[in-house]
């Protein structure tokens, strides 16, 4: 890969709306990414390996649970800072951001929000540094967009101390190397609870999934539970029901909205530079109207997304961001990122398909991002339900007779 | 060792450069500032390394306005213990140097470090002027600095080789590439910077010795002409008649 020359576009002077600390957090994350990640990410992507050696560095820049309070080992930053860090990570690679998103929003967040004091003290400080890594088990082979239909379950072991967990989770980022898994499973009454399962518990395995043509520098696996005996003290006591895991997804989707915008800005930044350097017919290709149209539309969409995303960050800081607002931002930003990646690749001509530029990698990664954490279509239905008051997720099967 | 590191702001290298007030003043509109890289990467980081190996305290000082506190926070996040902002517009090198020298004299530092120059004005003057105003030795463009007790050993790159010097502290040193490696602020540093002391002090009166007449921008680069290697006559003709270099 070429030298990482990234600078973020800021057409509407959005930086003026950030605090000095926001900019320091963002610029430090960017400097770290340029120094430590950009030079190696392509090799990991091509070989489909996870860069384990980056975990402590991710901890140092605050990528793991930025909003977790200092008393639990986090930096106690606000949600805009969290978004900015995710943006810088995904600007380089969606897989890197995925690892940090999962650790922050899907592992640390539920333990912080719904865990006992003992659970918080036990896990959060180590998760914040990257000394301990976690994953999140919600999706199952037969239950993706419909997580409430999950079959993973636990029952009382009868010994007064443990429960017995059975089931399987699929498409789990970080699973192959995670030390703990926050698993969502139904009790004997069908109520959903979060349970912290530790690697090494008998009957718990995490086989890696292979053959991904997207997020190749991120590690994905399954979680399989065969009569796993888990102490009752590992159940998150603070909240039960589907709302508990969905609140974690709100936090993760918030980070994805920022992250996808990072990928979009990286593609635009490269396309703009390339259009001024590459000459055809004796002039830079940026002198042609069709190239300018692509670039002008890209920066317009990026600017709109920047405004949307920052406002979402302000609302989240105030505790006012709704799930539907987060859905809209995630959906919009991933869509514009995908479109911008495709247009940027065209501007690069044949060079756009090579690993010398990150565009094709972004494009392939974003195909996962547009699907996970609520598919593109499900987010549309969330907006539809929010504005009409009518849920359109399920249909009665018509009687074909 | 009590170390004072002088930091200055400089525009981010991607900034668009423009001038106002009839081309006598740099137009700060829309410009993002960074810590001058020579001050940050070399002077500050070497000061922190010295503190980590032999103990002591690192203070950063800048002459500037409230808007410069972002660069101060960054320097604190990298690891400086405390910061001083001398509340004035740094009009020229003499003004800046006298402000810093007055502060340094009153607070008794063993070592005063500056970057070798700022990357915007490239003056390279402040360090030497501070030394003169404090009646201290000045070592310019040092690429290596070690301390044993009050004896400092420094290296400077000279034409064709390296000069090694020994000097007794207190001393003023300007730092060049090679002195240390850039440190990226980590989250612990950013958090710690929130509560580190930042003292704002009033400037002393200094006579203005210079004024700026005008700034001009360099000519824009002209397009590159590519001449076929077989067409030497055309090359010679262009070099003679257009570039007028032969």
What does this protein look like?
The complex is a heterodimer of chains A (401) and B (246). Chain A is of the alpha+beta class. Chain A has helices at 20-37, 41-47, 55-60, 79-92, 94-114, 117-129, 243-277, 289-317, 323-347, 359-369, 376-388; strands spanning 134-137, 153-156, 162-173, 180-186, 192-198, 204-205, 220-231, 279-280, 283-284. Chain A has 3 domains: 14-133, Butyryl-Coa Dehydrogenase, subunit A, domain 1, CATH 1.10.540; 135-234, Beta Barrel (Butyryl-CoA Dehydrogenase, subunit A, domain 2); 243-388, Up-down Bundle (Butyryl-CoA Dehydrogenase, subunit A, domain 3), CATH 1.20.140. The radius of gyration of chain A is 21 Å and the shape is globular. Chain B is globular, with a radius of gyration of 21 Å. Chain B has one domain (2-216): Rossmann fold (3-Layer(aba) Sandwich), CATH 3.40.50. In chain B, α2 (69-78) links the parallel β6 (57-64) and β7 (82-87). With 246 residues, chain B is of the alpha/beta class. Chain B is 28% helix and 28% strand. The termini of chain B are far apart. The mean pLDDT of chain B is 94.
Outline of the structure:
The complex is a heterodimer of chains A (401) and B (246). Chain A is of the alpha+beta class.
Describe the SSE topology.
The complex is a heterodimer of chains A (401) and B (246).
Chain A: H1 20-37, H2 41-47, H3 55-60, H4 79-92, H5 94-114, H6 117-129, E1 134-137, E2 153-156, E3 162-173, E4 180-186, E5 192-198, E6 204-205, E7 220-231, H7 243-277, E8 279-280, E9 283-284, H8 289-317, H9 323-347, H10 359-369, H11 376-388
Chain B: E1 2-6, E2 9-11, E3 19-20, E4 25-26, E5 33-35, H1 37-54, E6 57-64, H2 69-78, E7 82-87, H3 93-107, E8 111-115, H4 126-134, E9 138-148, E10 151-158, E11 161-168, E12 171-175, H5 187-193, E13 198-201, H6 232-241
Parallel strand pairs in B: 1-6, 1-8, 6-7, 7-13, 8-12, 9-12
Antiparallel strand pairs in B: 2-5, 3-4, 9-10, 10-11
Helix pairs in contact in B: 2-5, 3-4
């Amino acid at each position: 890969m070429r030298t990482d020359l990234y600078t973020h576009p800021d057409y509407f002077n959005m930086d003026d709306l950030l605090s000095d600390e926001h900019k320091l957090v963002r610029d430090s994350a960017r400097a770290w990414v340029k120094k430590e990640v950009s030079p190696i990410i392509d090799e990991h992507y091509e070989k489909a390996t996870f860069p384990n050696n980056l975990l402590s560095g991710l901890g140092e820049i605050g990528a793991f649970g930025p909003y977790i309070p200092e008393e639990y080992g986090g930096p106690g930053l606000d949600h805009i800072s969290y978004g900015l860090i995710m943006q810088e990570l995904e600007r380089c690679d969606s897989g890197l951001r995925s690892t940090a998103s999962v650790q922050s929003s899907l592992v640390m967040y539920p333990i912080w929000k719904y865990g006992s004091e003992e659970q918080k003290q036990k896990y959060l400080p180590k998760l914040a540094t990257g000394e301990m890594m976690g994953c999140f088990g919600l999706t199952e082979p037969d239950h993706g967009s419909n997580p409430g239909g999950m079959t993973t379950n636990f029952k009382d072991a009868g010994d007064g101390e443990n429960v017995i967990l059975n089931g399987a989770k699929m498409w789990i980022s970080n699973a192959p190397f995670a030390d703990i898994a926050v698993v969502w499973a139904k009790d004997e009454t069908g109520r959903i609870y979060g349970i912290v399962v530790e690697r090494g518990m008998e009957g718990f395995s995490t086989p890696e999934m292979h053959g991904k043509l997207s997020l190749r520098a991120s590690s994905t696996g399954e979680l399989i539970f065969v009569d796993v005996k888990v102490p009752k003290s590992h159940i998150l006591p603070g909240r039960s029901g589907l709302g508990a895991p969905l609140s974690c997804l709100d936090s993760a989707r918030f980070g994805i909205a920022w992250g996808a915008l990072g990928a979009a800005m990286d593609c635009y930044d490269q396309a703009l530079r390339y259009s001024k350097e590459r000459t055809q017919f004796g002039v830079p290709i940026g002198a042609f109207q069709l190239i300018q149209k692509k670039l002008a539309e890209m920066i317009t969409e990026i600017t709109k997304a920047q405004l949307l995303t920052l406002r979402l960050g302000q609302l989240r800081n105030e505790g006012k961001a709704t799930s539907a607002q987060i859905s809209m931002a995630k959906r919009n930003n991933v869509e514009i990122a995908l479109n911008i990646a495709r247009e940027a690749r065209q501007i690069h001509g044949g060079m756009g398909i090579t690993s010398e530029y990150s565009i094709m990698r972004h494009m392939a990664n974003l195909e996962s991002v547009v699907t996970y954490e609520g598919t593109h279509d499900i987010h549309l239905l969330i907006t539809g339900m929010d504005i009409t008051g009518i849920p359109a997720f399920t249909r009665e099967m018509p009687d074909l007779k | 060792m009590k170390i004072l590191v002088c930091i200055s702001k400089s525009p981010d290298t991607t900034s668009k450069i423009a001038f106002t007030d009839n081309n006598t003043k740099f137009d700060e509109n829309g410009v993002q500032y960074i810590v001058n890289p020579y001050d940050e990467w070399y002077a500050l980081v070497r000061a922190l390394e010295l503190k980590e190996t032999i103990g002591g305290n690192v203070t950063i000082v800048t002459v500037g306005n409230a808007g410069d506190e972002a660069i101060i926070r960054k320097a604190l996040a990298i690891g400086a213990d405390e910061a001083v902002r001398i509340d004035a517009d740094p009009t020229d090198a003499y003004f800046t140097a006298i402000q810093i020298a007055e502060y340094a004299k009153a607070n008794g530092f063993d070592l005063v470090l500056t970057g070798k120059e700022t990357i915007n004005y490239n003056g390279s003057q402040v360090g030497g002027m501070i030394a003169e105003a404090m009646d201290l030795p000045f070592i310019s463009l040092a690429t290596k600095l070690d301390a044993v007790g009050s004896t400092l050993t420094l290296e400077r790159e000279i034409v064709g080789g390296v000069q090694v010097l020994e000097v007794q502290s207190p001393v003023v040193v300007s730092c060049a590439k090679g002195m240390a490696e850039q440190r990226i602020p980590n989250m612990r540093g950013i958090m710690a910077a929130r509560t580190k002391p930042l003292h704002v002090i009033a400037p002393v009166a200094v006579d203005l010795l210079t004024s700026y007449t005008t700034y001009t921008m360099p000519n824009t680069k002209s397009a590159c002409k590519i001449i076929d290697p077989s067409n030497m006559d055309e090359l010679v003709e262009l070099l003679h008649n257009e570039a007028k270099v032969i």
